[in-house]
Protein backbone atom coordinates (compact mmCIF):
# COMPACT_ATOMS: atom_id res chain seq x y z
CA UNK A 1 0.00 0.00 0.00
CA UNK A 2 2.88 2.33 0.82
CA UNK A 3 3.99 2.23 -2.77
CA UNK A 4 0.79 4.03 -3.85
CA UNK A 5 2.01 7.16 -2.07
CA UNK A 6 5.55 6.94 -3.44
CA UNK A 7 6.48 10.41 -4.80
CA UNK A 8 7.81 9.06 -8.09
CA UNK A 9 4.63 7.07 -8.60
CA UNK A 10 2.49 10.14 -7.77
CA UNK A 11 4.52 12.18 -10.25
CA UNK A 12 3.94 9.51 -12.88
CA UNK A 13 0.23 9.47 -12.04
CA UNK A 14 -0.07 13.26 -12.35
CA UNK A 15 1.72 13.36 -15.70
CA UNK A 16 -0.30 10.44 -17.07
CA UNK A 17 -3.63 11.91 -15.99
CA UNK A 18 -2.74 15.22 -17.58
CA UNK A 19 -1.63 13.55 -20.81
CA UNK A 20 -4.87 11.54 -20.82
CA UNK A 21 -6.84 14.76 -20.26
CA UNK A 22 -5.03 16.33 -23.21
CA UNK A 23 -5.97 13.34 -25.35
CA UNK A 24 -9.65 13.58 -24.38
CA UNK A 25 -9.68 17.33 -25.07
CA UNK A 26 -8.21 16.80 -28.52
CA UNK A 27 -10.89 14.20 -29.28
CA UNK A 28 -13.93 16.09 -28.06
CA UNK A 29 -14.45 19.76 -27.29
CA UNK A 30 -16.44 19.54 -24.11
CA UNK A 31 -15.77 22.05 -21.34
CA UNK A 32 -15.38 19.39 -18.62
CA UNK A 33 -12.83 17.54 -20.77
CA UNK A 34 -10.18 19.85 -19.47
CA UNK A 35 -6.85 18.21 -18.57
CA UNK A 36 -6.57 20.32 -15.41
CA UNK A 37 -10.04 19.40 -14.13
CA UNK A 38 -9.62 15.70 -14.95
CA UNK A 39 -6.22 15.46 -13.20
CA UNK A 40 -7.44 17.46 -10.22
CA UNK A 41 -10.65 15.48 -9.64
CA UNK A 42 -8.95 12.09 -10.00
CA UNK A 43 -5.97 13.03 -7.81
CA UNK A 44 -8.13 14.51 -5.04
CA UNK A 45 -10.28 11.39 -4.95
CA UNK A 46 -7.19 9.19 -5.10
CA UNK A 47 -5.69 10.94 -2.06
CA UNK A 48 -9.00 10.92 -0.14
CA UNK A 49 -9.72 7.23 -0.78
CA UNK A 50 -6.20 6.06 0.05
CA UNK A 51 -5.92 8.52 2.95
CA UNK A 52 -2.82 10.18 1.53
CA UNK A 53 -2.27 13.60 3.18
CA UNK A 54 -1.54 16.53 0.86
CA UNK A 55 1.95 16.88 2.37
CA UNK A 56 2.78 13.52 0.88
CA UNK A 57 1.38 14.42 -2.53
CA UNK A 58 3.39 17.65 -2.35
CA UNK A 59 6.60 15.61 -2.45
CA UNK A 60 5.67 14.90 -6.06
CA UNK A 61 3.78 18.11 -6.78
CA UNK A 62 6.70 20.37 -5.92
CA UNK A 63 8.56 19.24 -9.03
CA UNK A 64 5.66 20.48 -11.15
CA UNK A 65 5.02 23.63 -9.07
CA UNK A 66 8.63 24.53 -9.58
CA UNK A 67 7.95 25.57 -13.19
CA UNK A 68 5.27 28.13 -12.30
CA UNK A 69 7.72 31.00 -12.06
CA UNK A 70 9.85 30.27 -15.13
CA UNK A 71 6.65 29.94 -17.17
CA UNK A 72 5.66 33.50 -16.25
CA UNK A 73 9.09 34.74 -17.31
CA UNK A 74 8.48 32.97 -20.63
CA UNK A 75 5.38 35.10 -21.25
CA UNK A 76 7.87 37.81 -22.26
CA UNK A 77 8.05 36.09 -25.66
CA UNK A 78 4.43 36.67 -26.86
CA UNK A 79 4.68 40.18 -25.43
CA UNK A 80 7.81 40.76 -27.54
CA UNK A 81 6.57 39.13 -30.77
CA UNK A 82 3.22 40.97 -30.67
CA UNK A 83 4.71 44.27 -29.64
CA UNK A 84 4.21 45.89 -33.09
CA UNK A 85 0.42 45.36 -32.85
CA UNK A 86 0.27 46.30 -29.20
CA UNK A 87 2.27 49.51 -29.60
CA UNK A 88 -0.21 50.97 -32.09
CA UNK A 89 -3.07 50.56 -29.63
CA UNK A 90 -1.32 51.08 -26.37
CA UNK A 91 -3.75 53.68 -25.05
CA UNK A 92 -7.02 51.76 -25.62
CA UNK A 93 -5.38 48.53 -24.41
CA UNK A 94 -3.93 49.91 -21.21
CA UNK A 95 -7.02 51.96 -20.35
CA UNK A 96 -9.42 49.05 -20.88
CA UNK A 97 -7.12 46.71 -18.94
CA UNK A 98 -6.94 49.21 -16.12
CA UNK A 99 -10.74 49.42 -16.02
CA UNK A 100 -11.06 45.61 -16.16
CA UNK A 101 -8.42 45.09 -13.46
CA UNK A 102 -9.95 47.59 -11.02
CA UNK A 103 -13.53 46.39 -11.64
CA UNK A 104 -12.37 42.79 -11.22
CA UNK A 105 -10.65 43.26 -7.87
CA UNK A 106 -13.17 45.72 -6.38
CA UNK A 107 -16.28 43.78 -7.49
CA UNK A 108 -15.08 40.39 -6.27
CA UNK A 109 -14.02 41.82 -2.90
CA UNK A 110 -17.27 43.71 -2.32
CA UNK A 111 -19.50 40.87 -3.59
CA UNK A 112 -17.74 38.40 -1.31
CA UNK A 113 -18.07 40.78 1.61
CA UNK A 114 -21.79 41.32 0.98
CA UNK A 115 -22.45 37.59 0.70
CA UNK A 116 -20.74 37.07 4.05
CA UNK A 117 -17.25 35.69 3.36
CA UNK A 118 -14.46 35.77 5.93
CA UNK A 119 -11.56 38.18 5.34
CA UNK A 120 -8.98 35.53 4.40
CA UNK A 121 -11.38 34.19 1.77
CA UNK A 122 -11.99 37.71 0.42
CA UNK A 123 -8.24 38.31 0.08
CA UNK A 124 -7.85 34.97 -1.71
CA UNK A 125 -10.48 35.98 -4.27
CA UNK A 126 -8.93 39.35 -5.19
CA UNK A 127 -6.49 38.13 -7.89
CA UNK A 128 -8.96 35.62 -9.44
CA UNK A 129 -8.87 37.02 -13.02
CA UNK A 130 -5.16 36.45 -13.74
CA UNK A 131 -3.36 33.24 -14.62
CA UNK A 132 -2.58 30.92 -11.72
CA UNK A 133 1.17 31.54 -11.31
CA UNK A 134 0.64 35.30 -11.03
CA UNK A 135 -2.52 34.90 -8.94
CA UNK A 136 -0.69 32.62 -6.49
CA UNK A 137 2.14 35.11 -6.11
CA UNK A 138 -0.31 37.97 -5.57
CA UNK A 139 -2.35 35.87 -3.15
CA UNK A 140 0.75 35.12 -1.07
CA UNK A 141 1.82 38.77 -1.04
CA UNK A 142 -1.60 39.97 0.22
CA UNK A 143 -1.87 37.08 2.76
CA UNK A 144 -4.62 35.17 0.99
CA UNK A 145 -4.85 31.36 0.90
CA UNK A 146 -3.13 30.27 -2.33
CA UNK A 147 -5.20 27.07 -2.72
CA UNK A 148 -8.49 28.97 -2.58
CA UNK A 149 -7.04 31.44 -5.05
CA UNK A 150 -6.08 28.55 -7.34
CA UNK A 151 -9.61 27.13 -7.13
CA UNK A 152 -11.22 30.51 -7.90
CA UNK A 153 -8.80 31.17 -10.77
CA UNK A 154 -9.94 27.87 -12.30
CA UNK A 155 -13.61 28.69 -11.77
CA UNK A 156 -13.08 32.14 -13.31
CA UNK A 157 -11.22 30.65 -16.27
CA UNK A 158 -13.80 27.98 -17.01
CA UNK A 159 -16.81 30.23 -16.48
CA UNK A 160 -15.35 33.14 -18.47
CA UNK A 161 -14.40 30.92 -21.40
CA UNK A 162 -17.93 29.45 -21.38
CA UNK A 163 -19.95 32.68 -21.27
CA UNK A 164 -17.48 35.43 -22.33
CA UNK A 165 -18.31 35.54 -26.04
CA UNK A 166 -22.06 35.25 -25.34
CA UNK A 167 -21.97 38.23 -22.98
CA UNK A 168 -20.12 40.36 -25.53
CA UNK A 169 -22.39 39.39 -28.42
CA UNK A 170 -25.42 40.27 -26.28
CA UNK A 171 -23.92 43.63 -25.32
CA UNK A 172 -22.86 44.76 -28.83
CA UNK A 173 -19.14 44.34 -28.21
CA UNK A 174 -18.28 43.15 -31.72
CA UNK A 175 -14.74 44.33 -32.38
CA UNK A 176 -12.45 41.25 -32.59
CA UNK A 177 -9.64 42.96 -30.68
CA UNK A 178 -11.98 44.11 -27.91
CA UNK A 179 -13.42 40.60 -27.63
CA UNK A 180 -9.96 39.01 -27.54
CA UNK A 181 -8.61 41.42 -24.95
CA UNK A 182 -11.68 41.00 -22.73
CA UNK A 183 -11.36 37.20 -22.83
CA UNK A 184 -7.71 37.31 -21.79
CA UNK A 185 -8.30 39.96 -19.14
CA UNK A 186 -11.21 38.17 -17.49
CA UNK A 187 -10.21 34.52 -17.90
CA UNK A 188 -6.41 34.38 -18.41
CA UNK A 189 -5.08 31.23 -20.11
CA UNK A 190 -8.47 29.52 -20.43
CA UNK A 191 -10.01 32.63 -22.03
CA UNK A 192 -6.99 32.83 -24.34
CA UNK A 193 -7.40 29.17 -25.25
CA UNK A 194 -11.06 29.79 -26.13
CA UNK A 195 -10.14 32.86 -28.21
CA UNK A 196 -7.45 30.83 -30.03
CA UNK A 197 -10.22 28.43 -31.09
CA UNK A 198 -12.00 31.33 -32.84
CA UNK A 199 -8.91 32.67 -34.60
CA UNK A 200 -5.18 33.40 -34.20
CA UNK A 201 -5.92 37.13 -34.14
CA UNK A 202 -8.41 36.83 -31.27
CA UNK A 203 -5.93 34.59 -29.49
CA UNK A 204 -3.03 37.01 -29.89
CA UNK A 205 -5.01 39.85 -28.33
CA UNK A 206 -6.33 37.57 -25.61
CA UNK A 207 -2.77 36.74 -24.59
CA UNK A 208 -1.95 40.45 -24.50
CA UNK A 209 -4.97 40.90 -22.22
CA UNK A 210 -3.79 38.03 -20.01
CA UNK A 211 -0.25 39.41 -19.73
CA UNK A 212 -1.22 43.03 -19.08
CA UNK A 213 -3.88 42.16 -16.52
CA UNK A 214 -1.31 39.92 -14.82
CA UNK A 215 1.11 42.81 -14.53
CA UNK A 216 -1.54 45.35 -13.54
CA UNK A 217 -3.12 43.06 -10.94
CA UNK A 218 0.20 42.18 -9.34
CA UNK A 219 0.98 45.88 -9.00
CA UNK A 220 -2.50 47.25 -8.23
CA UNK A 221 -4.19 44.49 -6.16
CA UNK A 222 -2.22 45.28 -2.97
CA UNK A 223 -2.90 49.02 -3.44
CA UNK A 224 -6.63 48.56 -4.18
CA UNK A 225 -6.95 46.28 -1.14
CA UNK A 226 -5.38 48.92 1.08
CA UNK A 227 -8.14 51.33 -0.02
CA UNK A 228 -10.83 48.68 0.51
CA UNK A 229 -9.56 47.63 3.95
CA UNK A 230 -11.84 50.06 5.88
CA UNK A 231 -14.87 48.30 4.32
CA UNK A 232 -13.66 44.84 5.34
CA UNK A 233 -13.61 45.38 9.10
CA UNK B 1 19.10 23.46 -29.52
CA UNK B 2 21.06 24.76 -26.57
CA UNK B 3 18.59 23.94 -23.80
CA UNK B 4 20.92 24.71 -20.92
CA UNK B 5 21.60 28.18 -22.27
CA UNK B 6 17.84 28.75 -22.57
CA UNK B 7 17.32 27.57 -18.98
CA UNK B 8 20.15 29.84 -17.84
CA UNK B 9 18.55 32.88 -19.52
CA UNK B 10 15.08 32.21 -18.08
CA UNK B 11 16.42 31.53 -14.58
CA UNK B 12 18.82 34.46 -14.89
CA UNK B 13 15.84 36.79 -15.44
CA UNK B 14 13.98 35.14 -12.56
CA UNK B 15 17.01 35.47 -10.29
CA UNK B 16 17.25 39.15 -11.24
CA UNK B 17 13.58 39.51 -10.25
CA UNK B 18 14.35 37.86 -6.89
CA UNK B 19 17.27 40.25 -6.41
CA UNK B 20 15.04 43.29 -7.01
CA UNK B 21 12.46 41.95 -4.54
CA UNK B 22 15.21 41.20 -2.01
CA UNK B 23 16.76 44.66 -2.32
CA UNK B 24 13.61 46.80 -2.52
CA UNK B 25 10.96 44.66 -0.73
CA UNK B 26 8.59 45.64 -3.55
CA UNK B 27 5.30 43.70 -3.53
CA UNK B 28 5.52 42.67 -7.22
CA UNK B 29 6.18 38.94 -7.84
CA UNK B 30 9.80 38.21 -8.83
CA UNK B 31 8.48 36.31 -11.85
CA UNK B 32 6.75 39.42 -13.24
CA UNK B 33 9.94 41.45 -12.86
CA UNK B 34 11.77 38.56 -14.55
CA UNK B 35 9.30 38.64 -17.43
CA UNK B 36 9.70 42.40 -17.93
CA UNK B 37 13.49 41.95 -17.72
CA UNK B 38 13.47 39.30 -20.46
CA UNK B 39 11.17 41.48 -22.58
CA UNK B 40 13.58 44.42 -22.15
CA UNK B 41 16.60 42.29 -23.08
CA UNK B 42 14.78 41.12 -26.23
CA UNK B 43 13.82 44.68 -27.16
CA UNK B 44 17.41 45.84 -26.71
CA UNK B 45 18.60 42.91 -28.87
CA UNK B 46 20.89 41.75 -26.06
CA UNK B 47 19.09 38.41 -26.21
CA UNK B 48 17.83 37.07 -29.54
CA UNK B 49 14.44 35.40 -29.83
CA UNK B 50 15.98 32.09 -30.91
CA UNK B 51 18.03 32.02 -27.67
CA UNK B 52 14.88 31.48 -25.59
CA UNK B 53 12.15 30.49 -28.05
CA UNK B 54 12.13 26.70 -27.70
CA UNK B 55 12.01 26.47 -23.91
CA UNK B 56 9.54 29.37 -23.64
CA UNK B 57 7.16 27.76 -26.13
CA UNK B 58 7.35 24.55 -24.08
CA UNK B 59 6.63 26.36 -20.80
CA UNK B 60 3.72 28.41 -22.19
CA UNK B 61 2.16 25.49 -24.05
CA UNK B 62 2.20 23.31 -20.94
CA UNK B 63 1.34 25.97 -18.38
CA UNK B 64 -1.86 24.04 -17.59
CA UNK B 65 -0.13 21.22 -15.73
CA UNK B 66 1.48 23.69 -13.32
CA UNK B 67 -2.12 24.39 -12.19
CA UNK B 68 -2.59 20.80 -10.97
CA UNK B 69 -0.68 20.57 -7.65
CA UNK B 70 -2.14 23.86 -6.27
CA UNK B 71 -5.61 22.55 -7.19
CA UNK B 72 -4.99 19.22 -5.44
CA UNK B 73 -3.96 21.29 -2.41
CA UNK B 74 -7.65 22.25 -2.14
CA UNK B 75 -7.98 19.07 -0.06
CA UNK B 76 -6.48 21.04 2.83
CA UNK B 77 -9.11 23.76 2.46
CA UNK B 78 -12.32 21.81 1.87
CA UNK B 79 -13.45 22.85 5.34
CA UNK B 80 -13.26 26.60 4.92
CA UNK B 81 -14.20 26.39 1.22
CA UNK B 82 -17.48 24.60 1.93
CA UNK B 83 -18.35 27.08 4.67
CA UNK B 84 -18.03 29.96 2.18
CA UNK B 85 -19.17 28.21 -0.98
CA UNK B 86 -21.99 30.67 -1.74
CA UNK B 87 -19.87 33.86 -1.42
CA UNK B 88 -17.04 32.27 -3.41
CA UNK B 89 -19.36 31.20 -6.25
CA UNK B 90 -21.45 34.38 -6.37
CA UNK B 91 -18.48 36.75 -6.17
CA UNK B 92 -16.34 34.85 -8.69
CA UNK B 93 -19.04 34.35 -11.32
CA UNK B 94 -20.64 37.82 -11.13
CA UNK B 95 -17.27 39.56 -11.08
CA UNK B 96 -16.10 37.60 -14.15
CA UNK B 97 -19.12 38.79 -16.15
CA UNK B 98 -18.40 42.37 -15.07
CA UNK B 99 -14.74 42.16 -16.11
CA UNK B 100 -15.58 40.79 -19.58
CA UNK B 101 -18.17 43.52 -20.11
CA UNK B 102 -16.18 46.48 -18.77
CA UNK B 103 -12.92 45.56 -20.53
CA UNK B 104 -14.60 44.86 -23.86
CA UNK B 105 -16.82 47.94 -23.88
CA UNK B 106 -13.98 50.27 -22.80
CA UNK B 107 -11.61 48.98 -25.47
CA UNK B 108 -14.23 49.16 -28.21
CA UNK B 109 -15.27 52.69 -27.24
CA UNK B 110 -11.68 54.03 -27.17
CA UNK B 111 -10.72 52.25 -30.38
CA UNK B 112 -13.67 53.69 -32.29
CA UNK B 113 -12.69 57.18 -31.15
CA UNK B 114 -9.06 56.77 -32.24
UniProtKB/TrEMBL annotation, chain A:
Pfam families in the record: LrgB
Subcellular location: Membrane
Keywords, ordered alphabetically: Membrane, Transmembrane, Transmembrane helix
Superkingdom, natural source: Bacteria
Keyword Transmembrane helix: yes
Transmembrane recorded as keyword: yes
Segments crossing the lipid bilayer: 6-24, 31-54, 90-112, 148-168, 202-225
Membrane topology value: Multi-pass membrane protein
Primary site of residence: membrane
Protein's name in the database: LrgB family protein
Biological source species: Polluticaenibacter yanchengensis
Taxonomic lineage of the native organism: Bacteria, Pseudomonadati, Bacteroidota, Chitinophagia, Chitinophagales
From TrEMBL, chain B:
Membrane topology: Multi-pass membrane protein
Transmembrane annotation, as ranges: 7-24, 30-47, 59-79, 85-105
Keyword set, alphabetical order: Cell membrane, Membrane, Transmembrane, Transmembrane helix
Record's subcellular location: Cell membrane
Keyword Transmembrane helix carried by entry: yes
Organism superkingdom: Bacteria
InterPro entries: LrgA/CidA
Protein name as it appears in the record: CidA/LrgA family protein
Native organism: Polluticaenibacter yanchengensis
Amino acid sequence: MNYLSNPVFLLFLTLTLYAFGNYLTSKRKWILFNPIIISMVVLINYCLVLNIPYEQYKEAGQYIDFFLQPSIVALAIPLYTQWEHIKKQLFPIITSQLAGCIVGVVSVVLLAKWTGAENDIILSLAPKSVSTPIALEVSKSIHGIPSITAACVMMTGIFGSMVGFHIMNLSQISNPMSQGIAMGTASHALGTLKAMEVSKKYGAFASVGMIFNGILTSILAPIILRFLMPYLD
Amino acid sequence: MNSIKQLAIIFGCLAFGELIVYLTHVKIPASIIGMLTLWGLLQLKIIRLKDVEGLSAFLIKNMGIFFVPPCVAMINYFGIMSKSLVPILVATLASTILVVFVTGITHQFLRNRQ
